UniProtKB/TrEMBL annotation, chain A:
Gene Ontology cellular component list: Cul4-RING E3 ubiquitin ligase complex; small-subunit processome
Repeat positions for WD: 62-104, 278-319, 321-362
Quaternary data: Part of the small subunit (SSU) processome, composed of more than 70 proteins and the RNA chaperone small nucleolar RNA (snoRNA) U3. Component of the DCX(DCAF13) E3 ubiquitin ligase complex, at least composed of CUL4 (CUL4A or CUL4B), DDB1, DCAF13 and RBX1. Interacts (via WD40 domain) with DDB1. Interacts with ESR1 and LATS1.
Source organism of the structure: Theropithecus gelada
Domain Sof1-like protein: 354-440
Pfam families: Sof1, WD40
Protein name, entry field: DDB1- and CUL4-associated factor 13
Keyword tags: Nucleus, Repeat, Ribonucleoprotein, Ribosome biogenesis, rRNA processing, Ubl conjugation pathway, WD repeat
Gene3D superfamilies per record: YVTN repeat-like/Quinoprotein amine dehydrogenase
Highest taxon in the source lineage: Eukaryota
Source taxonomy: Eukaryota, Metazoa, Chordata, Craniata, Vertebrata
GO terms of molecular function: ubiquitin-like ligase-substrate adaptor activity
Broad class of where this protein is predominantly found: nucleus
Keyword Nucleus recorded: yes
Keyword Nucleus: yes
Length: 445, 718
């Protein structure tokens, strides 16, 4: 008779050094690990709850301006540097890592209307209410030098905005018309108009760099082609568009921040229907900026909050607000897509995390794996009602909350009226207009 | 000139005539066009003018130029279309990025940019007094400031190489390079020539040349020639040793498989073998090689011929029918492939065999006398053996043993018969079945022995099949009809025996039909079926046309099922093997089962009991409903898709490490501390436009609109 012995081979359970991980023999037999769906559901629920627990997006407030922050710009080569212009003509350059101001320039008299950096990061341009365009060096003046602009261009009219080309020494300004400037000249090399109203902002397309978009106060968005020196198309919306922002990963799509509380994402080849209408704000949307990944954008609103929207969703995924933050005028997404900055009326620039519950700093591999797993679980179970409720819950200031309720009631009433109108009129006589088309007045060729 | 003179003349005359007209104008009378034309009509000299006028009249007026806005609009439209076209090249990229499982930012693969120290230094100047002092010191000692690698002395020494020397060396190198390139070009050109003939000629030329050299060498230097000869011999030996041109290589094997079907492959094979022979041939002796050649060829042939063919040959070796039988049983699949008609019948034989097992023993005497009959039976038994070799073998053994012994006696006769048949068959020559066999076997002579027998068994089987379904004699068998008519003369001697067989078969058939109706499901279609065909088709069509009309019955069925499913189930707590024997095929006793069966209480009556058209689902639990997903989420099109995604776990508890990592890859990955730039054409493999936007716009003529120019002018005046 053969006796079977238990044999323990130390190779299978002994660590080579003390620093090795313990060997854990695993058996993946599904019968040994039952209830996989309920267990994962619970894990997803916990992950969602933890996400809300750890959601502390506010990082820092940069104070120092003595008037409302009117414009913001990112440094193209340096993540830590941010430029801001205020309503008193002051321009400040900030260091985000140290969270302090490293330079202050009295750039203009009156408002600083626009600020933009050169693609190389060596200089930046400002326009102000004093009808001037000024180019400044990014580095401070040297030992014993005076703070002076590199160039100053005196214009005929007030410039309301400026943007720099992404690759070449060309910048565009807007005011009564859109001017394209060569950096070396004092006269615009090309100027384009369409209509007579003042243009509030102009933006270069970051991908196809010869394209520009502008929005004017006569409720329209105009697209220009710099190479052919001609406007391309104009779309007229219900209300005024404050700014537009191009998607940095998709050459043809841009998002417009509108006064009617909505944002509209357009495909520039089909302007008659926006690809998506983003509606969550309860007051005019003042600014919009894309995440450098092109998957999301952030919008700043007059309702004292900023919201983050996925490009393909009409509802925002996040809303940021603080007690002291007033009307947010400018917002920027940093170029590593981690942070969001916003400049508001009450003279502060605030720094937020783009992902509210994200842990900052370097993660260990296990932390990273856990994070990824939790993220996937949240995604997997996001449609379950309890999880959805927790994930969507946000605390809002009373003003916004009541505004939302009011808006909802108004919208519902409007919808009911529309339905009733259709119901009580001759079939086919009242056209059913989709929400997307409702806000487009006309497209002018 | 003349024309103008003429015109002047005519105008003069015109004015002369129109003097009274002028007077009229002066007097204030009204003037009509006709008055003016009067003199024109009269004067013939104005014909040319008239013609010109007519010509002008016939021509259309030039259209008004479009107004400025229109023109601008057209410009805009053209520009827009152009831009849209440029943008549409991004469509695939955008789509890909939107659907990507994972995107890693930044997109561009950046190489570490380490600026050389000179560049860093060039942008920097000494400003403070201390810095300036240090730099002064450095300059004094001629230490390198900008380029730290080379001092001026070193630089000078580098430049010291004499000019002439350098020139010569360069020329030398150039020549060598040129020569090499010439040779290379030539070789490449020759290699590129595709003509086989050319290469053959070249090869032959080379061979001839070698031979000539060899001859010369023999004359001049016999020792060297001997060495050369040895070399050739050695090459031959190597060739013999190697498997290079044998048929064991991959190519050769593949060709050997193909050789059966493909003439070209066979030829290629033969060519290779010829090559091998040629290479391994001894140079001197011719007489001995004949034997060897034959031997090798045989061997080669053996290797060359695929296994199937060999097998058939082996079959053909023994004319013994017993051997034959075993062989054919081995190659049963091949046989069944040959005639699909045979396929369904073994089953029938199985059944009939099990029934008529005793019969052969009982009717031995008759069978002994009529060996033809026996043979058919033998074939049948053989077939049934094929069909169920394991099960029926033992039971059959006792009976078949005797039969076999007797048959052995008869085998001699049988063989003779076979031979006579064979002759007949060979005289007829082409029977489709035979044709279907491999061409290789056709060539083999001994195989013919086997062939007619096969054919005959087939015929008999067909007949059997016919008798089995004797009710329908007019069975249409388009494939075999011709063959039968051909073969009837062959089967003449069998004709009387057919009846007997039939008799035997009839009662068999009766038994079959009474016992197992499943026989009807033979693949051979019966007449009834054929008659029904049309009707059924009709019915099918109607059914198809009104496919959706059976809703009521479906619904009732569904409801019945729902009711059944919702009924409380009895609980059986019997433990098999508890207190009694258990095992495979044993069931717990009825008493026990009755004792341990817990009957479920009758539930409350269903809500839809009296509602024939409604199914009310009573299973829905409101407590769980709060946790369930109400609406199918967006990307899913069916609930089972969603359920499946939920049911597959992604955690490391259920998945291996690798799978877990793969399942939890995040959609967007960003490198910390890296700037993500907008997508560029180069990132996705497109060519970005070579001309810069600035240069394009500067070349553009209509740079500044007129309005703006005016403004500029005004401002400059101010």
């Amino acid at each position: 008779m053969k006796v079977k012995m238990l044999s323990w081979n130390p190779d299978n359970y002994v660590r080579e050094t003390k620093l090795d991980l313990q060997r854990v023999p695993r058996n993946y037999d599904p019968t040994l690990h039952p209830f996989e769906v309920p267990r994962e559901h619970v894990r997803a629920l916990n992950a969602t709850k933890l996400e809300r627990v750890f959601a502390k997006p506010f990082l820092a407030s940069l104070d120092g301006h003595r008037d409302g922050v009117n414009c913001l710009a990112k440094h193209p080569k340096n993540l830590a540097t941010v430029l801001s212009g205020a309503c008193n003509g002051e321009v400040r350059i900030w260091n985000l890592t140290q969270r302090n101001c490293i330079r202050t320039i009295q750039a203009h008299e009156g408002f600083v209307r626009g600020i933009c950096t050169r693609f190389c990061g060596n200089s930046f341009f400002t326009v102000g209410d004093d009808k001037t365009v000024k180019q400044w060096k990014m580095d401070g003046p040297g030992y014993g030098e005076e703070e002076e602009p590199l160039h100053t261009i005196l214009g005929k009219t007030v410039y309301t905005g400026i943007d720099h080309h992404w690759k070449e020494a060309v910048f565009a300004s807007c005011g009564q018309q859109v001017d394209i400037w060569d950096e070396q000249r004092t006269n615009p090399i090309c100027s384009m108009t369409w209509g007579f109203d003042s243009i509030s902002s102009v933006k270069f397309n970051p991908v196809e760099t010869f394209l520009l978009g502008s929005c004017a106060s006569d409720r329209n968005i105009v697209l220009y082609d710099m190479r052919q020196a001609t406007p391309l198309k104009k779309v007229i919306l219900d209300m005024r568009t404050n700014t537009i922002c191009w998607n940095p990963m998709e050459a043809f799509s841009f998002t417009a921040a509108n006064e009617d509380y909505n944002l509209y994402t357009f495909d520039m080849r089909a302007l008659d229907t926006p690809v998506m209408v983003h509606m969550d704000h309860v007051s005019a949307v003042l600014d919009v900026d894309y995440s450098p990944t092109g998957k999301e954008f952030v919008s700043a609103s007059f309702d004292k909050s900023i919201r983050i929207f996925p490009v393909d969703k009409s509802q925002s995924r996040e809303v940021y607000h603080t007690k002291r933050m007033q009307h947010v005028i400018r917002v920027k997404w940093t170029s590593n897509s981690k942070y969001i900055m916003c400049g508001s009326d009450e003279m502060n620039i605030r720094l937020w995390k783009a992902n509210a519950s994200e842990k900052l700093g370097v993660l260990t591999s296990r932390e990273k794996a856990a994070k990824d797993y939790n993220q996937k679980l949240k995604e997997k179970f996001q449609h379950y009602p309890h999880i959805k409720r927790i994930a969507r819950h946000r605390h809002l200031p009373k003003s916004i909350y009541s505004q939302i309720q009011e808006q909802r009631i108004m919208k519902e009433a409007r919808r009911r009226k529309e339905v009733n109108h259709i119901k009580h009129s001759k079939p086919g006589s009242v056209p059913i207009v989709s929400e997307k088309k409702k806000h487009i007045v006309a497209v002018v060729k | 000139m003349r024309g103008t003179m003429m015109e002047r003349e005519s105008i003069k005359s015109f004015w002369k005539q129109s003097v009274p007209l002028m007077e009229r104008i002066g007097s204030g009378e009204k003037l009509v066009l006709a008055d003016l034309l009067e003199p024109v009509k009269t004067s013939s000299s104005l014909a040319t003018v008239k013609k010109q006028l007519n010509r002008v009249k016939s021509k259309k007026t030039v259209e008004l130029p479009l107004n400025k806005e229109e023109i601008e609009r057209i410009h805009r439209e053209v520009a827009f279309n152009k831009t849209a076209k440029v943008l549409s090249k991004w469509d695939p990229v955008v789509l890909k990025n939107r659907q990507a499982e994972q995107l890693v930012f930044p997109l561009e693969k950046e190489e570490p940019a380490i600026a050389p120290i000179e560049h860093v230094l060039s942008g920097w100047k000494a400003r403070t007094p201390l810095e300036q002092e240090i730099f002064n010191l450095l300059h004094k000692n001629k230490q390198p400031v900008a380029d730290p690698l080379l001092t001026p002395v070193e630089k000078a020494s580098l430049q010291a190489m004499s000019l002439e020397e350098a020139k010569m060396r360069r020329a030398e190198l150039q020549r060598a390079r040129a020569l090499q390139s010439y040779y290379e070009a030539k070789a490449r050109r020759e290699k590129k020539i595709k003509s086989k003939k050319y290469h053959k000629v070249v090869k032959k030329g080379k061979a001839k040349k070698a031979l000539k050299e060899f001859e010369q060498l023999r004359k001049v230097n016999p020792a060297a020639a001997l060495e050369e000869l040895e070399k050739i011999e050695k090459a031959r030996m190597m060739e013999r040793m190697s498997l290079k041109h044998q048929n064991s290589g991959k190519w050769a094997k593949s060709k050997a498989i193909m050789a059966k079907y493909d003439l070209e492959a066979r030829q290629a094979m033969q060519e290779q073998l010829a090559k091998n022979k040629e290479l391994t041939q001894k140079l001197q002796v011719a007489s001995e090689s004949e034997e060897e050649e034959g031997g090798t060829e045989e061997k080669v042939e053996e290797l060359l011929v695929p296994d199937v063919v060999n097998e058939v040959q082996m079959n053909a070796d023994g004319p013994n029918p017993w051997m034959l039988r075993s062989c054919t049983s081995d190659t049963k699949e091949a046989a069944t492939q040959e005639d699909p008609e045979q396929l369904p019948e073994p089953e029938a034989h199985e059944v009939s065999e099990s029934e008529g097992e005793d019969r052969p023993v009982a009717e031995e005497e008759i069978l002994l006398r009529e060996f033809e009959e026996r043979r058919s039976l033998r074939k049948r038994s053989e077939l049934s053996q094929d069909a169920e070799p394991a099960g029926s073998q033992e039971t059959k053994d006792s009976s078949s043993q005797e039969v076999l012994s007797e048959l052995r006696v008869l085998s001699q006769k049988l063989k003779e018969n076979d031979q006579s048949r064979k002759q007949k068959a060979s005289s007829e020559g082409t029977i489709p079945q035979v044709q279907r066999e491999e061409p290789a076997t056709e060539e083999e002579e001994p195989l013919l022995l086997q062939r007619p027998e096969r054919v005959q068994t087939l015929e008999e089987l067909e007949e059997l099949g016919k008798e089995e379904c004797f009710q329908n004699k007019e069975l249409p068998r388009p494939v075999l009809e011709g063959q039968q008519s051909e073969r009837t003369p062959n089967n003449r001697p069998d004709a009387p025996k057919e009846k007997k067989k039939k008799e035997q078969m009839i009662d068999l058939q009766n038994l079959l039909t009474t016992q197992s109706p499943s026989v009807k499901s033979l693949a051979v279609p019966t007449i009834e079926e054929l008659e029904d065909e049309e009707e059924r088709n009709q019915r099918q069509m109607i059914k198809e046309a009104f496919a959706g009309d059976d809703v009521i019955r479906d619904f009732l069925k569904e409801k019945r099922e729902a009711v059944e499913a919702s009924k409380p189930k009895d609980v059986d707590l019997t433990l098999p093997g508890w207190g009694e024997w258990g095992g495979v095929g044993l069931k717990p006793s009825a008493k026990k089962r009755r004792r341990f069966l817990i009957k479920a209480p009758e539930g409350p009556p269903r809500k839809d009991k009296n509602l024939p058209n409604v199914i009310i689902n009573e299973k829905r639990n409101i407590h769980t409903a709060a946790h369930q997903v109400r609406v199918l989420p967006y990307p899913f099109t069916h609930h089972w898709q969603f359920e499946r995604t939920i049911q597959t776990p992604i955690g490391s508890t259920w998945n291996t490490q690798r799978a877990f990592q793969k399942l939890t890859t995040p959609k967007v990955v960003t490198k910390p501390g890296h700037i993500i730039n907008p997508i560029k054409a180069e990132d996705v493999g497109y060519r970005s436009s070579s001309r810069s936007d600035l240069s394009v716009i500067q070349r553009n003529p209509k740079r500044i609109t007129t309005r703006h120019k005016k403004q500029l002018k005004k401002s400059s005046v101010d």
